[in-house]
Write a structure and sequence with these properties.
- This protein has 305 residues and is α/β, with parallel strands linked by helices.
- It has one domain: 3-Layer(aba) Sandwich (UDP-N-acetylmuramoyl-L-alanine:D-glutamate ligase).
- The chain has 9 helices and 14 strands.
- Strands 1, 4, 5, 6, 9, 10, 11, 12, 13 and 14 form a 10-stranded mixed sheet that branches.
Length: 305
């Protein structure tokens, strides 16, 4: 039987502007504007589909979008990559959008995140989640759940209640530090989850402003969420990313990118490559999976520039 992986979160329509010069307030800048489907959940699902064999894994994206001219493009990409849209809620006419302006060096200068469609149809998300859980519990069939940071507190409360670790492996990827404010100084809320977060997000969950490196942060987070099988990974931009599980601590320094490559989606790609390698090699070390993800993420950025 195929192993099931469900990715819950927003599908965005990304609009990315990249200037050819240093941005200045009040001045038009020459550059490029690109549009494409995106969002953490979409990016992760697409990343997993590029590595995991279709004969052994089934990927399902659980999200909400409107019916408009962008919908066909989104659904076409999902179909081409073998990602199931069985649980895709298509209602209304509006899609969620993400507007980002980058610096000329490829870093994010500023962004706006519009998630009204996803949030409006949460009741439908609850129903899909409950039916998925019931089916797996009935057959005692293991599954992987991945949640992005746009999932509401009410939805995650339901997840904690219904998805026990014996059947469901749960990952949480915030991707938006501002939405973690509701969990400030409450890292223990995510006990039983595997966390992929950045240093700023770790400090919010721990209610701290003092943790200035990923190793200290990952150890502090892990103490709060530790169970028999969970892990915590804390990234720190171009600095060391650190992972910890019950077997030990693993550190990796991101590959140096000496160019103006866009970094958009790098974190999503890193997680997708990590999880893919871990699932294809169940007995591999945490360090090995992090190193593979690190190298493949650089290749992804260079290929998608």
């Amino acid at each position: 039987m195929k192993k099931k992986i469900y990715i819950f979160g927003c599908i965005m329509w990304d609009i990315i502007g990249k200037p050819l010069e240093v941005m200045q307030k009040g001045k038009d800048s020459a550059g490029f504007i690109n549009e494409r489907p995106g969002g953490v959940a979409f990016n992760v699902a697409l990343g997993l589909s590029k590595v995991l064999e279709k004969g052994s894994f089934k990927l399902s994206l659980v999200s909400a979008i409107g019916k408009n001219d962008k919908t066909h493009a989104i659904r076409t990409i999902l179909k081409q990559n073998g990602i199931s849209s069985k649980y895709l809620i298509i209602k209304g006419t509006q899609n969620d959008r993400y507007l980002s302006i980058e610096t000329k060096n490829g870093e994010i200068f500023g962004s706006i995140n519009h998630t009204n469609t996803f949030l409006y149809y949460q009741v439908d998300m609850f129903k899909h989640f409950s039916s998925i859980c019931s089916a797996h519990k009935k057959d005692n069939d293991n599954a992987i759940f991945i949640f992005d940071g746009n999932c509401t507190r009410d939805f995650l409360d339901l997840v904690k209640k219904e998805a026990n670790e014996k059947i469901f492996t749960k990952y949480f990827i915030p991707a938006n530090f501002s939405k973690l404010k509701q969990f400030e100084n409450n890292a223990i809320y995510f006990k039983g989850f595997n966390l992929f977060i950045n240093l700023r997000e770790a400090n919010i969950l721990l209610g701290s402003k003092k943790l200035n490196n990923s190793e200290h942060a990952s150890k502090a987070i892990f103490e709060k969420i530790k169970t028999e099988n969970c892990l915590a990974v804390v990234t720190d931009g171009p600095n060391v990313a650190c992972g910890i599980n019950n077997e030990g601590v693993a550190k990796v320094r991101p590959e140096v990118i000496n160019s103006t490559l866009s970094r958009l989606g790098a974190g999503d790609a890193f997680f997708a490559y990590f999880l893919s390698h871990k699932e294809l090699n169940p007995k591999v070390s945490l360090e090995k999976s992090l190193n593979v993800a690190n190298k493949k993420t650089k290749q992804y950025l260079e290929t998608n520039d």
